[in-house]
Write a structure and sequence with these properties.
- There is one protein chain.
- The longest helix is centred in the middle third of the chain and has 22 residues.
- The two termini are 32 Å apart.
- This protein has a five-stranded parallel beta sheet, sandwiched between helices.
- It folds into three domains: 72 residues, Orthogonal Bundle (Multidrug-efflux Transporter Regulator, Chain: A, Domain 2); 93 residues, Orthogonal Bundle (Methyltransferase, Methionine Synthase (B12-binding Domains), Chain A, domain 1), CATH 1.10.1240; 133 residues, 3-Layer(aba) Sandwich (Rossmann fold).
- It contains 14 helices and seven strands.
- The radius of gyration is 20 Å and the shape is globular.
- By secondary structure, the chain is an alpha/beta fold.
- Helices cover 54% and strands 8% of the residues.
- Helix 6 crosses helix 9 and helix 11 runs parallel beside helix 12.
């Protein structure tokens, strides 16, 4: 399936772009900003190219541009405009506006900015990567490899702690900006995302929340270090259809087995609960005991989300 294939309903596009469905329809009707396909029942279906174009239009309007002045511009012209509208300190010196960089080059430049303790450069490169790629590619081929490289560099001593802090802090802020407000999309199925008590590393959970939103879910993100009782209360109180946990460090936390067992007991029988993160292998016997699937990639997560949605009437 190519990037021009109509495949996304409007609620998914709203989640991926941060635009409301009403505004998307208005831009389409008044300004012909995009031209979605239609199903046999006349439902709108948008392509990846449409999503990318709407995200660029949103960025341009947030920078002070009028939609009527920019709706007819090409994608390349919009990319140039958005890049040029960034504050001077946020524009990367090694990238020209509108330049298309390979994923490996983007990752390399982000790591160079991390080593230079340069948060503005990191922000600008992450923005550029987000404008040039879909959410799945951004998560799996840019952010996840960069985080692995930062972690490895910190462990082997090639990165200083301060450099690790600069990189992870900017990525955390960036991921937070990609998460739409759940309250804006009441029609989307809800999913609770967090880390259990004792698990303070939240970047994996944030990536899961962004991925869930891009797949048409409304993530309820609780942040890190959440007790089992509170996770269960959030699931039941919100009417969520699934719950995802990230476990990263420490992998051998003695509190973890008790927390997961307590959470499993408090959730309805058979309720979709899944776990991901760097510590899943060390805890695989516990997860098998609790019949909790562990997710090894964001690609695998998207398959599970489709299954949860298909079975939602059972909960």
């Amino acid at each position: 399936m190519n990037n021009a294939t109509p495949q996304h309903p409007i609620r998914v596009v709203a989640l991926r772009t941060g635009l409301s469905p009403d505004l998307i329809r208005a831009w389409e009707k008044r300004y012909q900003a995009v031209a979605p396909g239609r199903t046999d029942t006349a439902r709108r279906l948008y392509s990846d190219q449409d999503v990318q174009r709407l995200r660029l239009l949103k960025k341009a309007t947030e920078g002070g541009r009028r939609i009527g002045d920019i709706a007819s511009l090409s994608e390349q012209a919009l990319t140039d405009l958005v890049s040029s509208d960034q504050p001077p300190e946020a524009v990367p010196t090694r990238l020209q506006p509108g330049e298309s960089a390979a994923l490996s080059d983007i990752r390399f430049q982000i790591m160079q900015a991390v080593k230079a303790h340069d948060p503005h450069q990191i922000d600008a490169l992450l923005l550029k990567a987000s404008l040039e790629n879909t959410i799945p590619v951004l998560m799996e081929d840019v952010i996840a490899p960069v985080l692995r490289e930062i972690g490895e560099g910190t462990r082997d001593g090639t990165l200083r702690i301060a450099q690790e802090h600069v990189g992870t802090a900017q990525i955390r802020t960036f991921l937070g900006s990609l998460r739409p407000a759940s309250t804006e999309y009441q029609e989307a199925p809800k999913i609770v995302i967090t880390t259990p008590s004792g698990q303070l590393h939240e970047l994996g959970a944030l990536m899961v929340a962004v991925t869930c939103a891009s797949e048409g879910w409304s993530p309820i993100y609780l942040g890190p270090n959440t007790p089992a009782d509170e996770i269960a209360a959030a699931v039941i109180g919100s009417g969520a259809l699934a719950c995802g946990l990230s476990i990263t460090y420490p992998a051998d936390d003695p509190r973890l087995p008790g927390e997961l067992r307590r959470l499993r007991r408090q959730l309805p029988e058979g309720f979709p609960l899944f776990v991901g993160g760097a510590a899943i292998r060390q805890n695989s016997p516990l997860l098998k005991e609790l019949d909790v699937p562990y997710i090894q990639s964001l690609h695998e997560l998207r398959g599970h989300l489709e299954g949860f949605r298909a079975a939602q009437e059972g909960y």
